[in-house]
Write a structure and sequence with these properties.
By secondary structure, the protein is of the alpha/beta class. It has one domain. The protein has three helices and twelve strands; from the N terminus they run E-E-E-E-H-E-E-E-E-H-E-E-H-E-E. Strands 10-9-5-12-8-11 form a six-stranded mixed beta sheet. Helix 1 runs antiparallel to helix 3. The longest helix has 15 residues. It is globular, with a radius of gyration of 16 Å. The two termini are 24 Å apart. It binds zinc ion (2 copies).
Length: 191
């Protein structure tokens, strides 16, 4: 039996596995955001409009490919089925539990206030980084050498890059959070 789900924006019906759980409240940290089940085009549109509204800066690590569901003992593991935003000022709290060393290392990769978009020369709020930033695993350490692909991008050019990967890799997120309110980091994760 195939379960289906309605996209809350366009109202069309999709298989349950092809719906994203979009959350711009960042698990309730910013109540002015919203939580919506969205199809891919609607999620990408919403993600872009969140980027355009965002005033801060972010280190955005390219989403990792999602491997098929696997079972480990009795647990179902869905590798990298989430793409989350971590507000810098919350990263050391118990909810997130990043070490100060990790936070300091990431902070070195924020674009400066004067940074310009590599593609269109608008203000660049984002550093779009290869997952080699953390050796292709958010559970690893930050690569402090800076020796990996990085691009300073504006909101629109970042949204283009993000959309392209999501569509090309056929990614579906059980949790997807855009950057909101404050400086932070975007990364693949598992939920
Ligand atoms: Zn839709
Ligand atoms: Zn641009």
């Amino acid at each position: 039996m195939n379960k289906t789900c309605l996209c809350k924006a366009c109202g069309k019906e999709f298989p349950k596995g092809e719906i994203h759980q979009f959350d711009s409240t960042i698990r309730g940290n910013y109540p002015s955001g919203m939580r919506l089940a969205l199809c891919t085009p609607c999620m990408l549109r919403q993600y872009r409009s969140s980027l355009l509204a965002f005033k801060g800066r972010a280190v955005v690590i390219q989403p990792l490919p999602q491997r098929p569901l696997k079972r480990v003992l009795f647990m179902r593991v869905k590798p990298f089925n989430a793409y989350q935003f971590y507000p810098l000022n919350l990263m050391s709290t118990r909810d997130y539990n990043f070490s100060q060393e990790w936070i300091d290392a990431i902070s070195k990769y924020f674009p400066s206030e004067e940074a310009r978009c590599k593609l269109c020369n608008a203000r660049a709020q984002y550093n779009w980084c290869s997952p080699d930033l953390y050796y292709r695993s958010p559970f690893d350490a930050v690569n402090t050498s800076g020796n990996f692909e990085q691009e300073f991008l504006c909101s629109n050019c970042l949204a283009d890059r993000f959309s392209k990967i999501v569509c090309r890799e056929g990614l579906y997120f059980d949790e997807v959070q855009p950057p909101v309110e404050t400086d932070g980091m975007c990364s693949s994760f598992e939920v």
